[in-house]
Amino acid sequence: MAGGWSWKLLRCGEFRLDAGCMFGLIPRVVWMKWFPPGVIDESNRMPLQVNTLLLEGDGHLVVIEVGIGDKLTPKEQGLYGQQLRPDGRPRSVIDAIAEAGRRLEDVTAVVVSHLHFDHAGALTRLGPTGDPEKPELTFPNARIFAQKREWEDALANRSTMHRTYLKSHLNAQVTERIRVCDGEAEILPGVSVFPTPGHTWGQQCIKFTDTSGRTIVYCNDVMPTALHCRPTANLAYDVEPYTSMLERNKLLVRAADEQWTLILDHEPGHAAFTVQRDAESPGGHRLVPAPV
Asked: CA-to-CA distance for 83 and 164, rounded, in angstroms?
């Protein structure tokens, strides 16, 4: 797109997952050293964030990734340590969009890296009845972009976890809005996707050029936090951990060579980084904080 996209990082809610699962085969005695005292809670969970992007240009308003949403039960909210608003309801992309001064109805396109509930749950939201089994579209005028393989696997519930592709965010309303890609593709002028399998078979990254000329790449669970910039830092949730390791290295090599700015999907701290080669760092790369 001529002139590039303007964009904003949206922080759509903290949550927590088991740190052992987030680092797979890496022993606890190793990864515990990466955290300051008190960060890992009594349930062995580490803090994470739902990071999404809001893009604007050429009459389009685009949301990249939507996060958990507001439909989890109180028990599930506690299980995942989901951040709550002062009124007791979960913080979500709905709040972040409002804080950015935009309306849900104005969003013309939504792009999801994959369809696990913590990435795509907010494709639907609680309706007037408040029944999580009868939700409504969060972005009623938006096309929804995902990989064809991801969509098929989500509908068939092919995953290492039996409750992550949920019917409440894969319902008939979403089916009407979905647009599937088969591999690398340009989905909007200047916005493209490319597969990074391993966590799921149909996972994708999203790439665009911003108004300053930077190439921005929204990362998925191939490298969810800065601590995962290591060859062996795969998730216990990955369908193919070895593939994840290879894809993460390919991503880092390309990011360093092509001077990409990476946005990490679950990084609880500063979420934007460039990549530099560094023989002293694990895997030969290190992340350098970049402007947001």
From this structure: 19
Domain ranges of the chain: 6-289
The number of CA neighbours under 13 Å toward the Cβ of 273 is: 24
Helices within the chain (DSSP H only): 19-22, 28-31, 74-79, 93-99, 117-120, 148-156, 172-177, 241-258
User: Is 0.85 topped by the overall pTM?
Assistant: yes
Phi, psi of 77 (to 5 degrees): -60, -40
Q: How confident is the model at residue 239 (pLDDT cuts 50, 70, 90)?
A: very high
Query: Within its chain, how far is the Cα of 196 from the centroid?
Result: 13
CATH top class, domain 6-289: alpha beta
Sign of the CA dihedral running 222, 228, 231, 233: negative
**162 neighbors 195 (Cβ within 8 angstroms):** no
Residue 143, CA distances (Å) to 174, 176, 205 in order? 9, 9, 17
Name the one residue in this structure whose structure tokens are 């997952």. 17
Phi-psi region of 254 (alpha: psi -120 to 50; beta: other; left: phi over 0): alpha
pLDDT digits (tens, 9 = 90+) for 101-126: 999 999 999 999 999 999 999 999 99
- Torsion region of 231: left, alpha or beta (phi above 0 gives left; psi -120 to 50 gives alpha): alpha
